[in-house]
Write a structure and sequence with these properties.
- The protein has 169 residues and is an alpha/beta fold.
- It has 4 helices and 5 strands, in the order αβαβαββαβ.
- It is 30% helix and 14% strand.
- The chain has a 5-stranded parallel β-sheet with strand order 3-2-1-4-5, with helices on one face.
- Helix 3 links the parallel strand 2 and strand 3.
- The chain is globular.
- The model has no long low-confidence stretch (mean pLDDT 89).
Length: 169
């Protein structure tokens, strides 16, 4: 029996197509993958604005410091050693494109009291982390964020661009 091929359909939330404010994105991780995703978001933001869209607002989360080991294989310069990865990348993006994106020099995780981080609310979450435990932490925060009232920046998507599959627990 031959099964007819079904047409794939993806429905996007109308707010993402016609937002009244920039779409808020939490980019979690500013290493090799995260730095390249940030560049892609910068290019998408430019194109969206040119098309009359409200554009993007990105908040980059990473508590890691740039070291000599990051040079060359990640998008960092020797003059940036000692800076937070998130701060260096966001400053560069803002200078290049005139955006007002924000850097968070902390991990995207609950604090010692079990509360989610400030500014955790966004429409889109992109994780570029390298451990399973970090992904579970993000999932737990997203469950809580998604159980709130319907605001304009309620979660719509979570994309995981992580590179490791084993756990470091």
């Amino acid at each position: 029996m031959i099964t007819p091929k079904k047409t794939r359909v993806h429905f996007t939330d109308n707010y993402l197509l016609n937002p009244t404010n920039p779409i808020e994105i939490n980019l979690i991780g500013a290493g090799g993958t995260g730095s390249k995703v940030l560049t892609a978001l910068l290019e998408m933001n430019h194109s969206l604005i040119e098309l009359g869209h409200a554009g993007l607002f990105v908040r980059l989360w990473d508590d890691d410091i740039i070291t000599d080991a990051n040079l060359g294989r990640q998008r960092f310069a020797q003059s940036e050693e000692g800076l937070f990865k998130s701060v260096a990348l966001i400053n560069r993006a803002n200078r290049w494109s005139g955006t007002n994106w924000k850097a968070e020099s902390i991990k995207f995780q609950k604090n010692a009291l079990g509360k989610q981080p400030e500014n955790a609310q966004a429409n889109i979450y992109i994780s570029c982390v390298d451990s399973v435990s970090a992904r579970f932490e993000i999932a737990e925060i997203l469950k809580e964020v998604n159980n709130r009232l319907a605001y304009r920046n309620t979660p719509k998507y979570w994309m995981d661009f992580g590179v490791r599959h084993e756990s470091r627990i």
